[in-house]
Amino acid sequence: MRFGVAVYPGSNCDYDTYYVIRDILKKEVEFIDYRETDLSKYDCVIVPGGFSFGDYLRPGAIASHTPLTQALKDFASKGKFVIGICNGFQILTEAHLLPGALLPNNHGKFVCKHQYLKVENNETPFTKNLSKNQIIKLPIAHHDGNYFVDPGTLAEMEKNGQIILRYCDENGIIDESTNPNGSIGNIAGVCNKEKNVFGLMPHPERACEPILGTADGLLLLTSLIN
Amino acid sequence: MLIKFFIKPRKGVLDPQGRAVAESLKSLGFDNVKDVKVGKYIEVYVDSTDKEKAIEEAKEMAKKAIVNDLIEDYEIQVVE
C-alpha cells in the first residue's frame, strides 16, 4: 500500500505522519504538494493536521479549494482511502468529502491533552484492528474541534454506522463531563457513507510509540494495511 | 463596486464569543441585553458596473467560499 501525505502552507503534522508511515509502518510514502492533481500512484492520502492557510476564513476553508483537495474528490470516488486528521478533518468537511463542520470549542480555549475514545464502529477499513466499544487513548490538540451536523444528517449517519469514535473517559462514559470541546454526541471521528473517507480530531500519528505515552494510534493506522 | 458580506453563526449554532460578550455587557449593567452574535465582515472589491450581476456573483462567492451555510448565515450589500 502506497501512502501520500498532503502538504499545504501551514500544515505542521505532515512530518510526524510521514515518519510514522515510513519508519514505523514501513510503508512507501511521499509528500504531495497542495497544487498536485495526479494521485494515481497512491492508495491512501492522509490530510494532516496544522493550520493550513493560517485558518483564514474558516479552518480548512481555503485548503478545500486547492487543486489537491479537489483531486481528492475523484480519488475518493474511485474507492481509494482518505484520512483527515485534525485540520485534515476540517479540510475534508469544508470540501464536502465528509458531512458536518468543526466549530470553535464550546469553552473558547485551545485544548491539548490525552483523551480517551470509544470505538463505535469497528467494521470499517480504518478500525478493523479494534473491537467495538474498545477504549483507546490518543492526544488531542485543537481550537476548533466542536463537531456539528444537522439532526437529520446525524440520524442518517448513526444508521449508516458513520460515527467511528466518541470522546469518553477511561471507563467508557460518554457524557458532557467527558466531552472536551462540545461536539454533538461526543463525536470525535466520522466516515463517509462508503466508508473510505475518515476524519478525526485526535492525532493517531502522535501516538505510535510507547515512549509518547500511548501507542494506540497504531491500532488505527495498521487497520488499513493488515 | 464593493460587495459587503455580513456573516454570523446560524441560529442554534453555539457562539461562545457571543455568549461571552453578552455576559460581559450584562456585568457592565446593560441588563436589557438578550443575546449577542459575533460574526465576520468581509469586503470584496470587484470590477463591475452591473449591480444585479454583482449580486449574483456575490451569492456564488458566498456559496463556494465565503460562507459555510451549515453553520453560518449571511447578508450581502452591494455598494456602487
Automatic annotation (TrEMBL), chain A:
A GO cellular component entry from the record: cytoplasm
InterPro entries: Class_I_gatase-like, PRibForGlyAmidine_synth_PurQ
GO terms of molecular function: ATP binding; glutaminase activity; phosphoribosylformylglycinamidine synthase activity
Entry's Gene Ontology BP terms: 'de novo' IMP biosynthetic process
UniProtKB keywords: ATP-binding, Cytoplasm, Glutamine amidotransferase, Hydrolase, Ligase, Nucleotide-binding, Purine biosynthesis
Location of this chain's protein in the cell: Cytoplasm
Catalytic residues in the record: C86, H203, E205
Catalytic activity: N(2)-formyl-N(1)-(5-phospho-beta-D-ribosyl)glycinamide + L-glutamine + ATP + H2O = 2-formamido-N(1)-(5-O-phospho-beta-D-ribosyl)acetamidine + L-glutamate + ADP + phosphate + H(+); L-glutamine + H2O = L-glutamate + NH4(+)
Any Pfam family hit: GATase_5
PROSITE patterns with a match to the protein in the record: GATASE_TYPE_1 (PS51273)
Pathway(s) of this molecule: Purine metabolism; IMP biosynthesis via de novo pathway; 5-amino-1-(5-phospho-D-ribosyl)imidazole from N(2)-formyl-N(1)-(5-phospho-D-ribosyl)glycinamide: step 1/2
EC number assigned by the record: 6.3.5.3, 3.5.1.2
Main location: cytoplasm
Statement: the UniProt record of this protein carries the keyword Metal-binding: no
Entry annotated with the keyword Cytoplasm: yes
Protein's job: Part of the phosphoribosylformylglycinamidine synthase complex involved in the purines biosynthetic pathway. Catalyzes the ATP-dependent conversion of formylglycinamide ribonucleotide (FGAR) and glutamine to yield formylglycinamidine ribonucleotide (FGAM) and glutamate. The FGAM synthase complex is composed of three subunits. PurQ produces an ammonia molecule by converting glutamine to glutamate. PurL transfers the ammonia molecule to FGAR to form FGAM in an ATP-dependent manner.
HAMAP family registered for this protein in UniProt: PurQ (MF_00421)
NCBIfam families assigned to the protein according to its UniProt record, in alphabetical order: FGAM_synth_I, PRK03619.1
Subunit-level organization: Part of the FGAM synthase complex composed of 1 PurL, 1 PurQ and 2 PurS subunits.
Protein name per Swiss-Prot or TrEMBL: Phosphoribosylformylglycinamidine synthase subunit PurQ
Lineage: Bacteria, Pseudomonadati, Aquificota, Aquificia, Aquificales
From TrEMBL, chain B:
Record's keyword annotation contains Cytoplasm: yes
UniProt xrefs under Pfam families: PurS (PF02700)
One Gene Ontology biological process: 'de novo' IMP biosynthetic process
Location(s), subcellular: Cytoplasm
Pathway the protein acts in: Purine metabolism; IMP biosynthesis via de novo pathway; 5-amino-1-(5-phospho-D-ribosyl)imidazole from N(2)-formyl-N(1)-(5-phospho-D-ribosyl)glycinamide: step 1/2
GO function term, MF aspect, one: ATP binding
E.C. designation(s): 6.3.5.3
A cellular-component GO term for this protein: cytoplasm
Function comment: Part of the phosphoribosylformylglycinamidine synthase complex involved in the purines biosynthetic pathway. Catalyzes the ATP-dependent conversion of formylglycinamide ribonucleotide (FGAR) and glutamine to yield formylglycinamidine ribonucleotide (FGAM) and glutamate. The FGAM synthase complex is composed of three subunits. PurQ produces an ammonia molecule by converting glutamine to glutamate. PurL transfers the ammonia molecule to FGAR to form FGAM in an ATP-dependent manner.
Family: Belongs to the PurS family.
Name used for this protein in its record: Phosphoribosylformylglycinamidine synthase subunit PurS
Organism (species): Sulfurihydrogenibium yellowstonense SS-5
